[in-house]
């Protein structure tokens, strides 16, 4: 995302033209050197190459370049994820050697049979997760909006605006919404709200929401006017990436599923329909507990971690729509394509999808276990004895959770990150119960908590290969 600004339009356009079909426009700059080296080896101008890149070389658009490397030659030595400290900047890197070599194939110092494009390997040329294909049934995962400007406001300001009239007679709730980013999900919510004029609201109409428009005019427009050209400059009151497809997918839902894109632990959380998600959240456009349960199960989390890239000094796994979600084979008849046709509510409060009759019992069992997991977590995060739930100043938003003064300090420690760091027995039992129901949906009668991750991955990779794209 920085290449065009750093290199200039002319150089960026020239790179796109010269490397068309070889290096995706969204790939990191280092990928051009990987492709140059691969091409020179293919043309007989070099025998081998060794390069250092950030460990992101293994994932996303970058992986397409690594796949080409492995298609025309082979990686004979790699270190997939190493610390690298230079001039005070601590990052994680991958070191990759490919081409002709008489050396044994080694990955992270260990002998392997083959090294794959994601810099994993096998002693028997067996499991290659990079072969997993995106499944058309899974096209319901999106990043939240990318704002590019000071659109966010504190809750106190938002509540004042929500009560103020506008000359168009419309409420400010049309364009002022609660906001969540990754930190809000992994920790405590910050009570940050955001101004959101949608995807194409004309400026004249945006100005009719007086307070929100005045804010973006003062705080967003100067930043956007410094851009050379493009929609982010001409439509400066609209988020840089308002995510049209996300909004279409969420239409009609009362809630949706989110997970932080970068997090130490992989967990999934419900968000109310009124909340606008940030780009640091990955959104799954479903509202049923069965889908929530499948995603929260060990089976999916194992797949997600194995296909994740790593990010930051903490080397935390990154959850990506393309590699972690779109490739994941849901149980038969419980895919996102099967769960889009409406929902029903069970006596427990769990929400189940309208699926094939012979799968309704299975879906209900997963939904019940998932609903229980979520209820237990919510009771731990916000014990009824420690908080007060206060309705918002106007209807249509979730209640505010206000800590009672004597428990305010203790409540700050009640975060999902801390909960999964501790992983108390009750949480472990709830997850194991959920895992068993999801494994049964796959027909894995021999599943147990002791089943190796490699076995789970092997089974899922086989299912992925058997599904239509």
Structure write-up:
- The chain is α+β, with helices and mostly antiparallel strands.
- The chain contains 19 helices and 21 strands.
- It has helices at residues 3-7, 9-18, 31-42, 60-72, 155-163, 182-186, 203-206, 210-219, 221-224, 231-234, 244-250, 289-296, 298-306, 321-325, 360-381, 408-412, 416-422, 425-442, 453-466, and strands spanning 48-54, 75-86, 89-99, 106-107, 110-111, 114-115, 121-122, 141-143, 152-154, 176-180, 192-195, 255-260, 269-272, 276-277, 281-284, 309-311, 316-318, 343-345, 351-353, 387-390, 400-403.
- The strands form seven sheets. It has a five-stranded mixed sheet. Strands 8-15-12-13 form a four-stranded antiparallel sheet. Strands 9-11-10-14 form a four-stranded mixed sheet.
- Helix 13 crosses helix 19 (453-466) and helix 15 runs antiparallel to helix 18 (425-442).
- The protein is globular, with a radius of gyration of 24 Å.
- The protein starts with a helix and ends with a helix.
């Amino acid at each position: 995302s920085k290449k065009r600004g750093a290199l200039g339009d002319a150089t960026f356009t020239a790179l796109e033209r010269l490397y068309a079909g070889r290096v995706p426009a969204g790939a990191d700059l280092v990928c051009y050197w990987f492709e140059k080296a691969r091409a020179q080896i293919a043309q007989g101008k070099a025998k081998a190459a060794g390069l250092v890149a950030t460990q992101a070389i293994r994932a996303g658009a970058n992986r397409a370049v690594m796949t080409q490397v492995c298609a025309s030659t082979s990686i004979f030595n790699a270190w997939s994820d190493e610390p690298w400290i230079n001039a005070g900047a601590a990052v994680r890197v991958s070191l990759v050697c490919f081409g002709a070599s008489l050396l044994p194939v080694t990955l992270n110092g260990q002998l392997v049979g083959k090294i794959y494009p994601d810099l994993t390997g096998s002693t028997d040329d067996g499991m290659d997760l990079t072969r997993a294909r995106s499944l058309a049934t899974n096209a319901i995962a999106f990043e939240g909006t990318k704002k590019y400007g000071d659109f966010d406001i504190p809750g106190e300001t938002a509540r004042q605006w929500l009560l103020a009239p506008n000359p168009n007679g419309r409420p400010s709730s049309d364009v002022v919404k609660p906001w969540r980013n990754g930190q809000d999900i992994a920790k405590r919510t910050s009570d940050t709200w955001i101004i959101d004029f949608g995807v194409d609201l004309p400026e004249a109409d945006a100005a009719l929401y007086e307070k929100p428009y005045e804010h973006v005019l003062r705080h967003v427009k100067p930043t956007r006017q410094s851009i050379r050209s493009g929609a982010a400059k001409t439509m400066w009151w609209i988020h840089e990436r308002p995510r049209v497809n996300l909004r279409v997918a969420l239409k009609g839902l009362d809630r949706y599923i989110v997970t932080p894109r970068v997090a130490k632990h992989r967990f999934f959380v419900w968000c109310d329909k009124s909340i606008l998600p940030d780009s640091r959240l990955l959104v799954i456009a479903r509202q049923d507990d069965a889908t929530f349960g499948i995603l929260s199960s060990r089976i999916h989390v194992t797949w997600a971690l194995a296909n994740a890239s790593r990010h930051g000094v903490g080397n935390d796994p990154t959850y990506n729509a393309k590699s972690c979600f779109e490739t994941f084979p849901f149980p038969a008849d419980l895919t996102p394509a099967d769960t889009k046709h409406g929902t029903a509510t069970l006596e427990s409060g769990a929400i189940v999808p309208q699926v094939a009759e012979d799968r309704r019992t299975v879906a209900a069992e997963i939904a019940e276990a998932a609903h229980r997991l979520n209820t237990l977590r919510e009771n731990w995060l916000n014990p009824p004895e420690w908080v007060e739930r206060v309705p918002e100043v106007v209807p249509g938003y979730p209640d505010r959770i206000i800590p009672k003064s004597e428990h305010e300090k203790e409540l700050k420690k009640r975060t999902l990150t801390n909960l999964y760091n501790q992983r108390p027995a009750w949480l472990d039992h709830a997850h194991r119960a959920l895992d068993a129901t999801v494994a049964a949906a796959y027909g894995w009668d021999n599943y147990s908590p002791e089943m190796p991750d490699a076995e789970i991955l092997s089974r899922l990779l086989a299912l992925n290969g058997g599904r239509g794209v």
